[in-house]
């Protein structure tokens, strides 16, 4: 069973038939919102709004443990994350999509493991490849069949938030090898890995990162809102095709 974790802009997906909403309780508290059980393109799909349905939870306060545990508890095997990003690389423009293959974690103070010796015995997972290659190939094949601009690899810099980054921080991320920046990939990706869930991401580019391109003098909310409206429609088209064609 496939779960889609997305922003609040995807809460009203065209073509998503909501069957029911369920509050799932976990040893780590409650998820961001009741989990949506639905159908998309005639196939069963699970949806979870990571920031809450009205975008009330900032990225550093999301209960990532509860979100991932709850999805595993209801039988989810694969998670597809939709996560808007800023472009660090000059080759990326607003409206592009990136299918990341690696990430660098710059977050702090987030609860990032189930196996802390308190709830469950200590366990050190292999995190060489944060994103599931099989899922990435499926997404890339889908993107190849659609007329959207995308890049089939990328290094995601996970920043703490909720503020956006400084230009100097973006310079540092680029020197470290990052090509895109966002706030939600960690600890979401490593928690999924701990529970042996396939995890991959589609990252719409919402803006140029601080100090780059159109954001050389700053990043405006109006710019982010405008780009989000454009990418949401295309993102829904991608999701529907993935679900319909590949039978999740």
Number of helices: 5
Give the name of the CATH superfamily.
Nucleoside phosphorylase domain
Helix content: 25-40%
Helix and strand pattern: EEEEHEEEEHEEHEHEH
Residue fraction in strands: 15-25%
Largest sheet: number of strands, sense, barrel closure: 12 strands, mixed
> What gap, in angstroms, lies between the N and C termini?
6 Å
The best one-word shape is: globular
Class based on secondary structure composition and strand pairing: alpha/beta
Q: Give me the count of strands.
A: 12
The residue ranges in which pLDDT falls below 50 over 5 or more consecutive positions are: none
Chain-averaged pLDDT: 92
* Highest-level CATH class: Alpha Beta
Rounded radius of gyration (Å): 17 Å
The structural domain count equals 1
The CATH topology turns out to be Rossmann fold
Model description:
- With 248 residues, this protein is of the alpha/beta class.
- The chain has a single domain, classed as Nucleoside phosphorylase domain (Rossmann fold, 3-Layer(aba) Sandwich), CATH 3.40.50.
- The chain contains five helices and twelve strands.
- The chain has helices spanning 64-73, 133-145, 167-176, 185-194, 221-246, and strands at 2-6, 16-22, 35-40, 43-49, 78-82, 85-87, 97-98, 102-105, 150-151, 155-158, 180-182, 198-208.
- Strands 1, 2, 3, 4, 5, 6, 7, 8, 9, 10, 11 and 12 form a twelve-stranded mixed beta sheet that branches.
- A hairpin with a 2-residue loop joins strand 3 and strand 4.
- 45% of the residues are buried.
- The model has no long low-confidence stretch (mean pLDDT 92).
């Amino acid at each position: 069973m496939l779960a889609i974790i997305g922003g609040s802009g995807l809460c009203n997906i065209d073509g998503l038939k909501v069957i029911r909403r369920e509050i799932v309780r976990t040893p780590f508290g409650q998820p961001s919102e009741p989990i949506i059980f639905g159908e998309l393109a005639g196939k069963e799909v699970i949806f979870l709004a990571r920031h809450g349905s009205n975008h009330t939870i900032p990225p550093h306060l999301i209960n990532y443990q509860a979100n991932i545990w709850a999805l595993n508890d209801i039988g989810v095997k694969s998670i597809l994350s939709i996560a808007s990003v800023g472009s660090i690389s000059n080759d990326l423009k607003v409206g592009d999509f990136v299918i990341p293959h690696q990430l660098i974690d710059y977050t702090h103070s987030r609860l990032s493991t189930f196996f802390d010796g308190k709830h469950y015995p200590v366990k050190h997972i292999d995190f060489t490849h944060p994103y599931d290659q099989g899922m990435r190939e499926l997404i890339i094949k889908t993107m190849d069949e659609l007329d959207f601009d995308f890049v089939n690899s990328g290094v995601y810099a996970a920043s703490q938030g909720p503020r956006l980054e400084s230009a100097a921080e973006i310079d540092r991320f680029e020197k470290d090898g990052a090509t895109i920046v966002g706030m939600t990939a960690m600890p979401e990706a490593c928690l999924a890995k701990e529970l042996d869930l396939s995890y991959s991401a589609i990252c719409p580019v919402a803006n140029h990162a601080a100090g780059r391109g159109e954001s050389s003098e700053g990043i405006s909310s109006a710019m982010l809102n405008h780009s989000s409206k454009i990418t949401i429609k295309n993102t829904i088209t991608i999701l529907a095709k993935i679900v319909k064609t590949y039978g999740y």
